[in-house]
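Memo to structure team: turn this sequence into structure tokens by end of day. - J.P.
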Amino acid sequence: AFFHLEADIQAGKIGKVIASDISRIGRNSFGVAKWIDDLRKRSIEFITPKQSRSEINLLLSLARTKKPRPHER
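Reply from structure team:
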């Protein structure tokens, strides 16, 4: 289902992504943060009821300052 979501995002069919929990997107914090950042660059809103907007912003800011390890790319 995630690959279908990605395809719809690439096709411009998605304006908002809602996930029950951020862990439903992925387990790798850096990869998830990069994915959410890519959504924002496309003006796609990401919503999850279990994490506050400030938690997501913190995750994004940490990911932007951290260099990924080879297995995190």
